Amino acid sequence: MSVLSKSALLAAALLTFQALPVAAQQPAAPAAGADAALTLPRIDPQKQYLIENAKKPGWRTTPSGLQFRVIKQAVGNAPRPALTDEVTVHYRGVLIDGTVFDSSYNRGRPASFPLSGLIRGWQEAIPMMKVGETWELAVPSELGYGARGQPGSIPGGATLLFTIELLGTRKPDNTNLLLNPNMIR
Questions:
Q1: Neighbouring-strand partners of residue 154
Q2: Is the pLDDT at 183 greater than 50, yes or no?
Q3: What is the pLDDT of residues 19-32, one digit of tens each?
Q4: Which residues does the annotation mark as catalytic?
Q5: What's phi and psi for 94, nearest 5 deg?
Q6: 8 Å CB contact between 88 and 111
Q7: CA distance 178 to 185
Q8: Whether pLDDT at 11 is above 60
Q9: Residue 67 burial (CB < 10 Å; 0-12/13-18/19+)?
Q10: What three-state secondary structure class fits 185?
Q11: Any long-range contacts for 100-104 (C-beta under 8 Å, 24+ apart)?
């Protein structure tokens, strides 16, 4: 084969390759049975959300993995609730896809709960808040409903996003009327 015909053949091959769609020019994906070390691991979107959220301005992460951001600070020397207190809050709970799964705002009235009966993420965050503050929380699954979720509203393994407005706190009424009969009228 002459030098001229080799260059003509090479030029024709180059023109043919350039005419292919871009996708056809890419290396082929590994076959289904390819070495597992060459394939990238699937990233859990719940964990990925927390990784990206932690990089946003104003967000802080506790050692447990709870993320929070103060939206509105309390004025003056407002009280903080203890884990044994009952709290009154307005709140909205949302999944990372934007689905609202619970909201006292939608019901039109605040909710009151014994703090010790709530998910671990709230038990950690709310005692750090002062009455009058509004915080946003990103609660990892392990501090929320875990792998089981809440059937019908929260899938297992879900990262939960909350806006919480702490309206009040009060000590529980531990009066035992049987031990103090003088209080009975």
A1: 150
A2: yes
A3: 445 444 444 555 55
A4: 91, 101-102, 119, 145, 162
A5: -135, 145
A6: yes
A7: 13
A8: no
A9: buried
A10: coil
A11: 101/150, 101/153, 101/154, 101/160, 102/153
